[in-house]
Design goal:
Distance between the termini: 48 Å
Shape: globular
Helix content: 25-40%
Bound molecules: fe (ii) ion
Radius of gyration: 22 Å
Number of domains: 2
Strand content: 15-25%
Largest sheet: 8 strands, mixed
Structural class: alpha/beta
CATH architecture of the largest domain: Alpha-Beta Barrel
CATH class of the largest domain: Alpha Beta
Number of helices: 14
Length: 431
């Protein structure tokens, strides 16, 4: 029997080593040591880590790669200036340029082994250019990348009367999920009303919800409390995500513990965006400066599904980024003091299997019967992957190679030393 593809001698994230993965018809058909079969293509993983693809639980594909457009960048570094620059830019965005930027980002994502993205799309502008374009982009990239779109009223559900209708129009166009931004509504009461209205739309239509929630240093911003309540009241457990949740960082421990219990009991997922929030939050602090990331280890310990998002790349909110979810996990390890082996493995799961579950991706994972979607990294295990953020040597979607990157190996000219060094072969050295 000749299969489509076999990867030999892989290490898996669960610690198994020396594993062969056999692929036929776009699915895994065998995963075991020394699979006795031939294939049209064989890849030697040489003991390196084979992981399911990276998944970004929170992104803005309509804003990406707009850094500096209109001759302006975010000088203060604040979230407020980012939103102002975006609202100035938005009416001038053309469908063609927006499509080009979105596709260019998806190219970069595929090259980094990032094969599923939940992207918010701003529906504040009545033209709905972003939603129209991204629904087309979603279809176009579907062979190599799962794009899930969230109708996101960036300026607020109650910012103008047409927003409620814009959300319905965006859903009719093919946008998948319902978003919101309750902490940005004109009053806290209207924030709560927006959550009830938006969760109501999702409940009525059987949709997922993902709200930007409490993205502020203000410990009095407690909109997630209402999001947890509405999730329970409407029977939406497992279908709702609270994104950012930055105010949890600044709340007192007693209240935060109570709130985390409510979030866990409601089955509400949480998404932290450590790269963006490390620089957007704490901007009104002198010293000490707050980190801005929500309480990731505490939420995980309470049993919440916690994923990580990139949020922004080269846009009015974040001037860096390269579609690398290992950069995101690396920052989460630092901002959340998650340097234990278990903590780092949890951060790796937060950019792979946990967001896959939150997005509802089917047949995701390294298991027989799952889609043959995977990445071979120039690293031996998830902890080394976070440490090195190494080359994605081979990226495979449905059994087909979609991207390849040469390993990073440096040539050395040092007397009496080896002539090259591969960062993934240097680790702790014993006595
Ligand atoms: Fe966001």
């Amino acid at each position: 029997m000749s299969l489509d593809l076999i990867v030999r001698n892989a290490a898996l994230a669960d610690g198994r080593a020396g594993i062969d993965l056999a692929v036929e018809g776009g699915r895994f058909v065998a995963i075991a040591p020394a699979v006795a079969a031939a294939a049209r293509r064989e890849i030697d993983a040489a003991g390196r880590l084979v992981t399911p693809p990276f998944v970004d639980a929170h992104f803005h594909l309509d804003a990406t790669l707009t850094l500096g457009l209109g001759g302006k960048v975010n000088e203060s570094g604040t979230l407020a200036e980012g939103i102002r620059l975006w609202s100035e830019l938005q009416p001038h965005l053309t469908a063609e340029a927006l499509r080009e930027r979105a596709l260019a980002y998806c190219d970069l994502a595929a090259s980094q082994g990032l094969l599923a993205i939940r992207s918010h799309v701003d529906v504040s502008d009545d033209a709905l250019t972003g939603a129209e374009v991204l629904v087309e982009v979603k279809r176009q990239v579907a062979p190599y990348l799962d794009l899930q779109l969230v109708a996101f009223p960036q300026m607020g559900y109650f910012s103008k009367p047409s927003v409620a209708e814009n959300i319905r129009r965006a859903l009719a166009l093919g946008v998948d999920a319902v978003g919101g931004i309750p902490h940005l509504e004109p009053t806290a009461e209207l924030g709560r009303d927006s959550i009830a209205a938006l969760c109501g739309i999702a409940a009525e239509r059987g949709l997922l919800v993902d709200m930007h929630c409490d993205e502020t240093d203000d410990p009095a911003s407690r909109q997630v409390e209402t999001l947890a309540y509405e999730t329970r009241r409407l029977g939406l457990s497992g279908r709702v995500t609270g994104s950012h949740l930055c105010s949890l960082h600044s709340m007192d421990n007693f209240y935060a513990a109570r709130l985390i219990g409510q979030i866990a009991a409601a089955g509400l997922a949480a998404v932290a965006n450590p790269l963006a929030n490390m620089v957007l939050q704490g901007r009104f602090d002198s010293y000490p400066k707050r980190r801005g990331m929500t309480r990731v280890p505490e939420l995980m310990a309470a049993g919440c599904a916690v994923a990580l998002g990139h949020d922004s790349v080269l846009d009015p909110w974040y001037p860096l980024g390269r579609a690398d979810m290992l950069d995101v996990a690396h920052m989460a390890v630092h901002a959340g003091h998650m340097t234990s082996q278990a903590g780092m493995r949890a951060c790796f799961a937060a950019v792979t299997e946990t967001p896959a579950r939150i997005l509802g991706l089917e047949r995701y994972g390294i298991a027989v019967g799952c889609h043959a979607d995977f990445v071979i990294l120039q690293a031996r295990d998830p902890v080394e992957a976070i440490r090195l953020r190494p080359a994605r040597l081979v990226v495979v979607r449905r059994g087909r190679v979609v991207a390849e990157t040469a390993p990073a190996v440096s040539r050395l000219s040092l007397a009496g030393r080896p002539d090259s060094v591969d960062p993934a072969t240097i680790g702790a050295i014993g006595l």
